[in-house]
Design goal:
The protein has one helix and four strands; from the N terminus they run H-E-E-E-E. The chain has 71 residues and is an alpha+beta fold.
Length: 71
């Protein structure tokens, strides 16, 4: 499976059940899910009022720290 295929699959799963990701400790309104094969984190927000999931960052696990996330 390519990175694009794994990302597309993750987006489909997030659309069906946005609660599958874990909350980010420092930003409780942001969640992330892991792309295991590609070793990336997908950081996203859920707007329940409008039924929308917005991807904020795709971050490789080898990178130090975390992306700049909204407060």
């Amino acid at each position: 499976m390519t990175l694009v295929e794994e990302f597309d699959d993750a987006c489909r799963r997030l659309a069906e059940g946005p609660g599958i990701g874990v909350r980010v400790k420092s930003r409780h309104h942001v969640r992330r899910c892991h792309l295991e094969r590609a070793r990336y984190w997908v950081y996203y927000l859920v707007d329940e009022d409008h039924d929308v999931v917005s991807v904020l960052h795709v971050w490789h696990t080898s990178r130090e720290g975390a992306p700049d996330l909204p407060r």
